[in-house]
Structures are given as C-alpha cells and as structure tokens.
Amino acid sequence: MIALLDRLWRGFGTALSFTAFGVGGALLGLFAAPLLWLLVRDPQRRQQAARRLIQYSFRAFIGLMKFLGVADYRIDGLEKLQRPGLLVLANHPSLIDVIYLVAYTAEADCIVNGALARNPFTRGPIHMAGYITNSEPDAVLAAAQRSLAQGKSLILFPEGTRTSPRRAIKFRRGGANIALRTHTAITPVLISCTPTTLTKGEPWYHIPPSRIQMRLRVLDDVAVTRDETQPAGQQARHLTQWLSDYFNKELEQFSHERNPRFVAGTEADDYRNA
Questions:
Q1: Exposure letters 219-250 (e unless 16+ CB within 10 A, then b)
Q2: Is the distance from CB of 114 to CB of 131 less than 8 angstroms?
Q3: Dist CA 156 CA 243 (whole Å)
Q4: pTM (two decimals)
Q5: Does residue 239 lie in a domain region?
Q6: 250-269 residue pLDDT tens
Q7: Is position 274 within any domain?
Q8: What DSSP string runs through 36-62?
Q9: By residue range, what is the domain housing residue 4?
Q10: Is residue 267 part of a domain?
C-alpha cells in the first residue's frame, strides 16, 4: 500500500514538474525574450543574460523535482564545470540529464536537436540563448569554434541521441572533430540515471518504480593534439573510437561504484599514452 501511494505521489509530482517545465519554457519565449530585447541592447550581454536566466530556471526545476520526491541528484567534481571554455562530452541516458549539465556549467552553450528549436515549449529559450542547433550540420563546427573562442563552455552528447540501456556506447565524430579543429581539451562527464527513465521512445508518464537518482561524475580533462601529417578524417575516426572505448570502460566502473581508473591494453590506452 505504501509503495502504491509513493508511486502515485511521484506520478503526480512528475506531471506537475513537466507542466511547470512546459509552461516555464513558453513564458520565457513569450515574455522574457522580448523583455531582454528591450532592456539589453548589446547582443552579447543579452545572450549572456538569457543563458543565466535559463540556468537559474533549470536549477529551480531540479529543486522542484527534488522537493516533490521525483528525482534526487549528486554531482562529483562540480568545481571542474565552473571553468571557462570547456568542451563537455557526456553520455545521454535520459531526456532530463542535459538540464543538470546546463544548470551547473558556467557560461553553458549547447548543440541541440533541431526539432527542439521548433517545439513550442523549447524554441523560445533556445533562440533567446542562441544555442547551436544541428539543423545545418555544415554550420555547427563554425558555430562551435566561435563559442569556444568566446570562452563559453560547449555541451555535446556525441552519440547524437539518447543512450540505449544495456548497450555499448558508440559515438559519432562531431565531438572529436570539434576538439581537433579547435585544439580544445575534452572534459568527459559520466551520467547515471537509476532507475532508467525517459530513455529514447519512453513517455514521461511511465513512472519508474522508485525515485530517480541522477548522478554525474566530471572526470579529468583529456588533452587532444592534432597531427598535421595525418588526414583530419582519420584522426577524428581514431579519437572517436578512443572516446567510445574510454566512456564504456569508465561507465562500467561508475555503475559498480568503483573509483574511475584507466584500464590499459586497448586502443584507448594507445591513444592516451601516444
């Protein structure tokens, strides 16, 4: 009986949380964006103010979910996300994990799905903050270079979609290309969502059997060097394979609550110690 009441309460809390998220997104687009346009004339300052507003809104949403008993969280290595000019690469186990990253990463910029830029509940904040969309792939790299050059931190999910539970991670080359072209170290972030929820194709009203525990672990930066004697495509392919191996190893250890450590004897070992 207690378990049933708990699940019903979390169902109510989930519905309330996502209603607040949708309404909040619409209000940001309808009222906050025009107000910022009128009050802040400088485009850079206006964009910075918009991103800070979104960051505080996301923190409020996280606080609401915690207060209602829907989701709790923990971030290991939070101080590492406070540095400027980061290229943050993370796995993507849930629809809501990006909210935690944006909420706690300083000067956060994102590469977001083009469909979100057309969604009535999310398009207002996305346009207001000037986030990068993947609708035009050829323009993404140039936009990423500009963002990092301005000292902003770029958040990217290299899988290109949400992580499938119980499947090995396989990254696409976008993150590697950006790292190599901009000579930017990679800041890896491991994300665990227990029990799994809001995975690809799973609707918000599928309430998990217990409160969501969202855990993020920020690892040490991975230095990236570009070899001008090798073709860019080959280097990107090599680095992408290494990142996939690296994340799979670290996530396996993370899931078993062991301290992340490097496992030698693979292509990942070869790349890191090259």
A1: beebebeeeeeeeeeebbebbbbbbbbbbbbb
A2: no
A3: 13
A4: 0.88
A5: yes
A6: 999 998 764 444 444 444 44
A7: no
A8: HHHH--SHHHHHHHHHHHHHHHHHHHH
A9: 1-258
A10: no
Contact between 194 and 257 (Cβ < 8 Å): no
> What's at 90, amino acid-wise?
A
Q: Are 260 and 219 in contact (CB under 8 A)?
A: yes
Using DSSP's 3-state secondary structure scheme, residue 213 falls into strand
Cβ neighbours of 55 (radius 10 Å): 18
Q: Where are the alpha helices (DSSP H) in the chain?
A: 2-27, 33-39, 43-67, 97-104, 123-129, 137-149, 174-182, 232-255, 267-272
**What pairing do the DSSP bridges indicate for beta strands 71-76 and 212-218?**
parallel
Neighbours of 96 (CB within 10 A): 23
The helix/strand/coil state of 94 is coil
How many structural domains does the chain have? 1
Distances (CA, A) of 29 to 57, 59, 120: 13, 18, 9
User: Is 207:17 a contact under the CB 8 Å cutoff?
Assistant: no
The residues, ordered by sequence, that sit 6+ positions from 89 with a Cβ below 8 Å of its Cβ are 156, 157, 158, 175, 186, 187, 188, 189, 243
Q: How far apart (Å, rounded) are the C-alpha atoms in residues 149 and 138? A: 18
Q: Are 85 and 145 in contact (CB under 8 A)?
A: no
pLDDT digits (tens, 9 = 90+) for 83-120: 999 999 999 999 999 999 999 999 999 988 878 888 88
Amino acid at 100: Y
Whether residue 271 lies inside any domain: the answer is no
For 48-93, the pLDDT digits (tens) are 999 999 999 999 999 999 999 999 999 999 999 999 999 999 999 9
